[in-house]
Amino acid sequence: MQGRVLVTGGLGFIGSELSRRLLALGSTSHLTIVDNLSSTILDYSDLEGHAEIVIDDMRNIDETRHFDEIYHLASPVGSVGILQHSGKIAGDIIGLAEKAARLAEAGGSRLLYVSSSEVYGRDGSHDEAVAQMVPCRRGPRMEYALGKLTAEHLLLNRAAARDLDLRIVRPFNAIGEWQSAGLGFVVPRFFEAGLKGEPLTVYGDGQQRRSFCHVSDIAGGIISVQERGLANEVYNVGNRDNITTILQLADRIRSLCGRGSPVQFVDPTELFGPAYIEAFDKIPDVGKAADHTGWTPQLSLEDALDRIHHHYRSRRDVAAVV
Ligand SMILES: NC(=O)c1ccc[n+]([C@@H]2O[C@H](COP(=O)([O-])OP(=O)(O)OC[C@H]3O[C@@H](n4cnc5c(N)ncnc54)[C@H](O)[C@@H]3O)[C@@H](O)[C@H]2O)c1
User: What is the mean pLDDT of residues 115-140?
Assistant: First the structure.
C-alpha cells in the first residue's frame, strides 16, 4: 500500500526500524512520525529529511489530519520502564489506543495496533486462538499486560461497531542493535556488562525461557500483517526457533564478549523492590501470521547476537571502555 502513513512511537526501538523499513520499501508517499521522546532517545538523524518528524505527545495530533495507514506503537515499555510509569501505565495505554482509533475512524485509515505477548500472562507456547487470561497478580507488569489486553478489546469492539479497519500484532521479545539497557531489556544489559568485563546479573535461577526475535523481523512482521493480514485479526510476531534460557543467553554473550565476566544470580526484587514481577516463559506460535501473510522470521539468535555484538564494538562510547 502506498500513501500517507503515521507511525506513533516512531523514534523508539521498534518504531524507528519500522519507519526505516517503510521508507526503504517505498511503502509510503509521506511518512509522519510522532514521538514525545519519553523513552531512551535513539539517533534518528537518518530519518530527518525523509519523514515529517513531530516531537510531541501523540494525544496532540490534530484529528482532522488524514492518514491512509496508522501504525500505533507509542506506549510505556520495558520491565524497568513500566516500573517508572506504575499507576498510570494502563490509563496511558488505553488513552493512546483510543486516540489512535479516533484518528483512524476520522481519516478512514487502516490501523495496526502493536500490542504485546504479555497479554498471554502465563508460561507456554502461545497461539492466538486460546482464550486470554492474564493472572491478576497485583503489580506494574500486570497493569501493563491488562492495559494492552484492554486496548485490544477496545479496538476490536470499536472495529465491530464502527467503521474501523484494524489489525493487531503481539510482538514477542524483540532484540536488536539499538535496544536500551536502561529500560531493563536483558540483551543490551548483558552486552554492556560483558564488554566491560563486569558480572552479568541473571534474575532468579536463569531458567526462564524466552524466544528472541530480531527487530528487523518484528518490523517485517508488522508490515506484513498491515498489508496482508485479515481485518480484526490478532497476530503473534516472534521467532520460535530462537528459544533460550536466560542463563544460556548469558553464556553466549559472555563468550562473544570474551572478557571473562562472571554470572551473578540476583533476586530482582532486591534491585527493584517487591513490585517487580518476572516475566513468564514466552514462546510464540507464529503459524497464523505465516499462513495469512507469508511472513516468517529470518534471523537466528546466533546471527542476531553477532549483529548486536558487532554494533556494540563499533560504537564509540562502548569502545572507550573495552
Ligand atoms: N520491545 C519489545 O520486545 C516489545 C514486545 C512486545 C510489545 N512491544 C510494544 O512495541 C511498541 C514499541 O516498543 P519499543 O520496544 O520500540 O519501545 P520504545 O520505548 O523504544 O518505543 C516506544 C516509543 O513511544 C514513544 N512514546 C511513548 N508515549 C508516547 C506518547 N504519549 N506520544 C508520543 N510518543 C510516545 C517513546 O518516546 C518511544 O520512542 C510498544 O507499544 C510496546 O508495548 C515491544
Answer: 78
Query: In testing the pocket of ligand 1, which one of 6, 32, 56, 77 has its CB within 8 Å of the most ligand atoms?
Result: 77
Instruction: Determine the distance separating the centroid of ligand 1 and the alpha carbon of 40, expressed in angstroms.
Output: 10
Helix/strand/coil for 296: coil
Hey, whose CA ends up nearest to atom 7 of ligand 1? 116
CATH class of the domain comprising 4-173+213-237 = alpha beta
Q: Where are the domains of the chain?
A: 4-173+213-237, 186-210+242-282+298-319
Whole-prediction pTM = 0.94
> Does any ligand 1 atom lie closer than 6 A to the CB of residue 237?
no
Can you give the pLDDT at residue 42? 84
Tens of pLDDT, residues 167-206: 999 999 999 998 988 777 899 999 999 999 999 999 999 9
38 lines ligand 1 (CB under 6 A): yes
Atom of ligand 1 nearest to the CA of 11: 39
Is there a shared CATH topology between the 4-173+213-237 domain and the 186-210+242-282+298-319 domain? no
Question: For cell 516512531, what's the residue?
Answer: 10
Q: What is the pLDDT of residue 27?
A: 83
Give the pLDDT confidence score for residue 132 in this predicted structure: 63
| Pairing status of strand 110-114 against strand 69-72 | parallel
Better pLDDT: 161 or 273:
161
Going by pLDDT thresholds of 50, 70 and 90, the confidence category of residue 315 is: confident
Query: Is residue 57 lining ligand 1, measured as CB closer than 6 Å?
Result: yes
Q: What is the best residue among 75, 79, 223 to mutate for testing ligand 1's pocket, by most ligand atoms within 8 Å of CB?
A: 75
11 CA distance to ligand 1 centroid (A)?
Answer: 9
CATH code of the domain made up of 186-210+242-282+298-319 = 3.90.25.10
